[in-house]
């Protein structure tokens, strides 16, 4: 039963289970169709009684419900566009988070994971916010950190897949399933930053563009703004996520909603009493804007398309399209191929051996180059040492000759000093002798005078 707006009524427990069953049945039917096409020619055998494998959808539902689900949303947009408020409004809760500073030199991504439960279905929700996006004066590289973050999640999943002992059944999948790109309600055109960023992200994530705070512009301006955005996205080759129309149960709704992109949304967790009921709304001096009123904004459309109808398709598109593209490119970079130059199947062992031989050849080549370089360096060092040794010998000879000359001069000076010393000693001896003789002569004269006085 459809509501007047064209969407299913709010989900109750039984209806939620029915939706889950329908999605899993569609998945089983798709798998069955693929198996049928792959195994055409197999003989069809009629059953003579009930076997029981028609309970597989129920088994899948029970297993999925017991295991729980995960969903990861990336919110990209400039500061002040109400990203956190919209997330709170979408999931009807208040996500606790630390306040972030917006004075950083670059864009940083902040990830928070929450455990949610509705009826008996558990959801591990991860919300990734781009802190500081659009705050810098130079915005040329604002998208790089976002691309690197998305690639890092793909790489983590790929490394888990390549492990010998894998635990994918309990692995927390952090790959981004949906990117809500918040567009400022300027009413004119997309900014260069928006176009460049979406162009870099469209091959890596499912982009759903939304016009934030759409109550800032009038309805006529909003319609023109939507047309302008769609035109610019097409002219610049930006591929946004299109709601799938191959499933008959949701083809009509999704086809209609594709024409409403980008969604013009308003977020608010405040409840205002309108008539006899409380509704989420934003109050202004001129009136009240109701979040869940489709005449006021597209919030209901966004919630229906993102959560209630296409959440599983977003997860599937992430795995089968974006992750597979990353995986294929990464494996090709590593040298793995499906076919050889003759278009024959290539086994993993052959690919490994070919890559190993190539690596060993490159290793031997580099080893030979390093050996030649080492020999050349040794020769150059030997020549330098020989030249230094020659200079040392020449210096030694000069110093030796200088030493000999100095020694010769010192010996001559010593000889001269020795001669002077001998001469001095001779003169000293003669002087002492004369002094003694004079003293003796003086002593005898004194004695003679003393004798004469006595007489």
From TrEMBL:
GO CC term, one of those recorded: cilium
PROSITE patterns noted in UniProt: G_SEPTIN (PS51719)
CDD domains: CDC_Septin
Coiled coil start-end: 349-427
Protein name per its UniProtKB record: Septin
One Pfam family matching this protein: Septin
Any one Gene Ontology BP term: determination of heart left/right asymmetry
InterPro entries from the UniProt entry: G_SEPTIN_dom, P-loop_NTPase, Septin
Ranges for region Disordered: 430-455
Tagged with keyword Nucleotide-binding: yes
Residues in Septin-type G domain copies: 67-333
GO MF annotation list: GTP binding
Biased composition (Low complexity): 431-441
């Amino acid at each position: 039963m459809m509501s007047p707006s064209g969407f299913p009524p709010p989900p109750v427990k039984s209806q939620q289970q029915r939706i889950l069953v329908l999605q899993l049945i569609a998945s089983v039917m798709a798998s069955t169709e693929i198996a049928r096409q792959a195994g055409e020619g197999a003989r069809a055998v009629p059953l003579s009684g009930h076997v029981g494998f028609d309970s597989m959808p129920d088994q899948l539902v029970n297993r999925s419900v017991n295991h729980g689900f995960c969903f990861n949303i990336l919110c990209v947009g400039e500061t002040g566009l109400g990203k956190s408020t919209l997330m709170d409004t979408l999931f009807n809760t208040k996500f606790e988070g630390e306040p972030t500073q917006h004075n950083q030199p670059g864009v940083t991504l902040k990830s928070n994971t929450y455990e949610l439960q509705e009826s008996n279905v558990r959801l591990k929700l991860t919300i990734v916010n781009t802190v500081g996006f659009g705050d810098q004066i130079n915005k040329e590289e604002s998208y790089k950190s976002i691309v690197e973050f998305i690639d890092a999640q793909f790489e983590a999943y790929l490394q888990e897949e390549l492990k010998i002992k894998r635990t994918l059944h309990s692995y927390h999948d952090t790959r981004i399933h949906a990117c809500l790109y918040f567009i400022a309600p300027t009413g004119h055109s997309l900014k260069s930053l928006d176009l460049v960023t979406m162009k870099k992200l469209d091959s890596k994530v499912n982009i759903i563009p939304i016009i934030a705070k759409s109550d800032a512009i009038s309805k006529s301006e909003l319609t023109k703004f939507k047309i302008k955005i769609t035109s610019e996205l097409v002219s610049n080759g930006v591929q946004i996520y299109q709601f799938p129309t191959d499933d008959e149960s949701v083809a009509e709704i999704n086809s209609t909603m594709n024409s409403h992109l980008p969604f013009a949304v308003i977020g608010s967790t405040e409840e205002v009493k309108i008539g006899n009921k409380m509704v989420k709304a934003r109050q202004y001096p001129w009136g009240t804007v109701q979040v869940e009123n489709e005449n006021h904004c597209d919030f209901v459309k966004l919630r229906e398309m993102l959560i209630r109808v296409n959440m599983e398709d977003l997860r599937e598109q992430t795995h089968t399209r974006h992750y597979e593209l990353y995986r294929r490119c990464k494996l090709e970079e590593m040298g793995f191929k499906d076919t050889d130059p003759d278009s024959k199947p290539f086994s993993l062992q052959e690919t490994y051996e070919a890559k190993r031989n190539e690596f060993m050849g490159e290793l031997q080549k580099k080893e030979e180059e390093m050996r030649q370089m080492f020999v050349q360096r040794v020769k150059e060092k030997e020549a330098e040492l020989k030249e230094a040794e020659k200079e040392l010998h020449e210096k030694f000879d000069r110093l030796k000759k200088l030493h000999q000359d100095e020694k010769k001069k010192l010996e001559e000076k010593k000889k001269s000093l020795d001669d002077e010393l001998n001469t001095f000693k001779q003169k000293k001896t003669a002087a002492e002798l004369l002094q003694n003789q004079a003293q003796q002569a003086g002593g005898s004269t004194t004695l003679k005078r003393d004798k004469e006085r006595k007489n």
